[in-house]
Amino acid sequence: MTGHDGKRPARRGRAEAKNDAGSGSGSANSSRATLLWFRQDLRLEDNRALHAAADTSLPVVFLFVLDDGAAGDWKAGGAGRWWLHGSLSSLAASLEARGARLILRRGDATAIVPALAAEIGAGEVHCGLPHEPWMRKLDEQVAAALEKAGRRLVAHRVATTMDLDAVWSKSGTRFGVYSPFARACRAAGAPDAPLSPPRTLACPGPQPSSDALDNWNLLPTRPDWAGGLRNSWQPGEAGAQARLKRFLDGHLDGYGASRDAPGEADGTSMLSPHLHWGELSPNQVWHAAHDSIGGSAGRRAGFETFESELLWHDFSAYVLRHNPALPDRPVRGAFERMEWRRDPAALQAWQQGRTGVPIVDAGMRQLWRIGWMQNRARMITASFLVKHLLLPWQEGERWFWDTLVDADLATNSVSWQWIAGSGIDSQPFFRVFNPVTQSRRYDRNGTYIRRWVPELRELPDRWLHAPWEAPEGVLTEAGITLGQDYPRPLVDLSEGRNRALAAFRRIAGPDKRTTENREQADTDTGTGAARSGKTGRRADDAPAAATGRPGRGKAASPSRSKGSSPSGRRAAAGS
Ligand SMILES: Cc1cc2nc3c(=O)[nH]c(=O)nc-3n(C[C@H](O)[C@H](O)[C@H](O)COP(=O)(O)OP(=O)(O)OC[C@H]3O[C@@H](n4cnc5c(N)ncnc54)[C@H](O)[C@@H]3O)c2cc1C
Fold first, then answer.
1. What is the CATH number of domain 333-530?
2. Exposure on the CB side of residue 216, measured as CA atoms within 13 A
3. Is residue 312 flagged as an active site residue?
4. By alpha-carbon position, which residue is closest to atom 18 of ligand 1?
5. What distance in angstroms lies between residue 8's CA and the mean position of ligand 1's atoms?
6. Catalytic residue list contains 416
7. How far is Cα 575 from Cα 220, in angstroms, rounded to an integer?
8. Range with the lowest mean pLDDT among 88-97, 188-197, 356-365, 529-538?
9. Rg (Cα) of the chain, in Å, rounded?
10. To the nearest 10°, the Cα dihedral for 47, 52, 55, 58?
11. CATH topology of domain 222-322
């Protein structure tokens, strides 16, 4: 819905506080201070929790708790911890510049938050509204503990453009598909306008004690694998603003095409870690992008596509909110019976970017080096793991969790299940990305491959995407001996594809949706039918007719690699 001035009406009235779990029994009136509990909203601008705390006119105490116990398997991974250190350091400096202090505590938040609220005499604790299941459970426990003492927890929407509890279909059901969800969001109008930081922050005289950030050991030391991350990112609000400006100044126009070209510098905004850690709100990003359109048709087109991606971010949170088991279990029950293979050597080759398929290796090495991978490359590498290698999507999800600076429980699990075909509004399993076709289409000149797989640099474009097809003389001239300078492919692409399709056929029967997929698979003929609602997500392979030979992979339940610490996994993979 667009207003006559070309601007959408605002989604006002949707930023109200949530999870107001306490009784509000009057203790707020006798409060001496307010507690602001930061989580994944590490910013001063457009932070509704911060505004609500400041509006009490009481001194505000700022707290961040590192509670790895509550997060369990989903505590921040190695790259996430590196980012968190930088982001907290930046936030602490911004607060100090305003005469305030960030209090750091490590341990059980259900004990720490109520105890600190009692210590400073806070009637209210303000925080951002989370969508991670473990954090929601934690909030319930903290709210209950506070309530016992007549205090209350007040959560504010800080991480999505929409109030996710207010998005319903016309028939009153939840959306299970992205496109109508996005239509409903767009129809609701523009996201709320961003708020500037409060002018003044009243701070208490004596401050509570705080841990020293350096003592949390969030940065890797032995080995220090973070050099590529340091060279690529500036965690914190200032870095986020600079990245947003760079993208909007030069790259919104043409984003529709460049977002699919992994080799294009700044082809996408690279805002994902800043958005994940809440150094920028999606509302700030939306408004800045919208305001930058001016009269340009190209920028408007870029904006429309960019907005779709921001809504995918909201949709992922929405899906996780309504499917708390999503990070661990397939949404489609039939996939519980999938006969995934167990092949640690293949898994490690994938993690290290040594599969012998250049576009896959380029993506995995980019991830390793800078803690981020371009979206098209994420799709190709994920599909290769799940389909050509027939390894459980949870293995890939775990690896991404540990190595991505933007690792986000909602987006990561929704995306992995989308690739695996086991999730909500996913790509059907029988759509198998051919990595070579994808590579030729989206990295036509080989810029991406040459950057991240330099040993192939001298190969002519024609052979770069599939070196195993190159004549011996061409390889020799490029200085490559396959199996020595660069691996032979881990799997024959056509055999891998057939093995995956055979495994899929064995589970397809009893599950309604997968049966439908299979029937569709037998009749689809073109890429048009392969288009999903997801912008730019298109499978390029012909659909699976019932041609594959039965696979021989042994049934393996997905292992979660429990017990190996994230940084241990990074260290184990070498550099
Ligand atoms: C297997 C797989 C795993 C992924 N894991 C994560 C993850 O852990 N964290 C994460 O933030 N993204 C994840 N994505 C989604 C996507 O790849 C990244 O959000 C995107 O590449 C980030 O780059 P950008 O900021 O330049 O995006 P842009 O193209 O500039 O998009 C702007 C913003 O929109 C959102 N967005 C873009 N693409 C998607 C998408 N496909 N789904 C949901 N939101 C999107 C992000 O917040 C992004 O920062 C994953 C995708 C795949 C295929």
1. 1.10.579.10
2. 25
3. yes
4. 375
5. 25
6. yes
7. 13
8. 529-538
9. 24
10. -110
11. 1.25.40
Residue 125 phi, psi dihedral angles, 5° rounding: -120, 120
pTM of the model: 0.89
Closest atom of ligand 1 to 259 CA is: 29
The pLDDT of residue 26 is above 70 = no
The answer to whether the CB of 518 is under 6 A from ligand 1 is: no
Q: How far is CA 359 from the centre of its chain?
A: 21
Give the chain's mean pLDDT.
86
ipTM of the complex: 0.99
CA distance 464 to 446: 7
Ligand 1 centroid – CA 263 distance (Å): 16
Does domain 27-156 match CATH 3.40.50.620? yes
d(CA 46, CA 157): 11
Options 307, 309, 395, 397, the catalytic residue: 309
Is residue 233 flagged as an active site residue? no
Mutate to test the pocket of ligand 1, among 283, 320, 375 (most ligand atoms within 8 A of CB): 375
Dihedral angle computed from the Cα positions of residues 560, 561, 565 and 571, in that order, rounded to the nearest 10 degrees: -130
Please give the distance, rounded to the nearest whole angstrom, from the Cα atom of residue 202 to the centre of ligand 1. 37
Q: Calculate mean pLDDT across residues 506-534.
A: 42
Residue nearest to atom 11 of ligand 1 (CA): 272
* 370-424 pLDDT per residue, tens: 999 999 999 999 999 999 999 999 999 999 999 999 999 999 999 999 999 999 8
Segments making up each domain of the chain, as ranges: 27-156, 222-322, 333-530
Q: Which residue has the CA at smallest separation from atom 2 of ligand 1?
A: 415
